[in-house]
Design goal:
Strands 4-10-9-6-7 form a 5-stranded mixed sheet. Strands 3-5-8 form a 3-stranded antiparallel sheet, with no helix packed on it. The protein has a two-stranded antiparallel sheet with strand order 1-2. The protein folds into 3 domains: 137 residues, no CATH class; 31 residues; 149 residues, Immunoglobulins (Immunoglobulin-like), CATH 2.60.40.10. With 326 residues, the protein is α+β, with helices and mostly antiparallel strands. It contains 7 helices and 10 strands.
Length: 326
Amino acid sequence: MTQISFTKYPVDIILCLLCSLILLPIALLNMEGPLRVILGLPFILFIPGYIFVFALFPIRKTDHGIDLIERIALSLGLSVAIVPLFGLAFNYTSWGIRLDTILISIFIFNMGIGLLAIYRWIMTTPEERFIITVNVTFPKPNAKFDKLLNSILAIFIIIIVVLLVYVIIVPKTGEQFTEFYLLGPGRIGANYSTTLAVGENASVILGIVNHESQTINYTIEVWLVNQTTIYNQTTLENKTVYDHVWFIDKITIILNHTPADIEKRWEPQWEYNFTFNITRKGNFKLTFLLFSTPTENYTYNKDYKGLAEEKINNAYRETHLWVTVV
């Protein structure tokens, strides 16, 4: 058995501070990779509590100290309690809860309390200091059964390590979705032209953002729908009856994947100024159907009311604008 003791320096605190120093630029520069995960988990879930506990108890297990198991348990619990306090505090400031503000605040906490912990450890007499001791044992199995157990244990350790590396390295695919929106003048969701004269031109802005983790060939179909809502006495539900559904236009666009990052300012990926006019009087629903695959071609201004329900139900996304034509 070989015993390794770190008596000259508080190696555990130094490692905690080193972990914080390495992680901060990696996280702030948004560098991806397994190192960010390996350092990030203890930075959030363990280091703040461990440094705080060490600053309170720099001495070894006595009437006034605690042992390693107690330190680890307290460290996990205190980290879970300390880190949310930073978010709560920043929630009431102009900075808000953001990744950079939380990271920097935890980093300052770790460095400040860590230096205090080192100072208190140095001021403690060497005989009373808490030190990390590692016992390394190299067993020499004499029986075949011991060799078999050691082999099985080694295999399990290898499997666990391989699975851990796989989980860290293989990129996680987040939620896949497409943003499909309709804006009025000034690129705001208001002030739409909802009352028009026959043949009067009006415009809306169509927008798409691809978060599907792949390149998508989108198709937007524009339909002018004249529908009636009937209350079904049997099912006690409203039913939509499509009286007329005229094909207006088709727009195709190929968009690459754009990562969805809630921590950054939202930016449009593709927008299109769609101008239309309606040559009939009445109340209509100008319907925009988004498809993620190419669709058939239709004749302009032809009534396809027989396809209305199928088209609307099969659309990937849908948005519309109610328009009254006088």
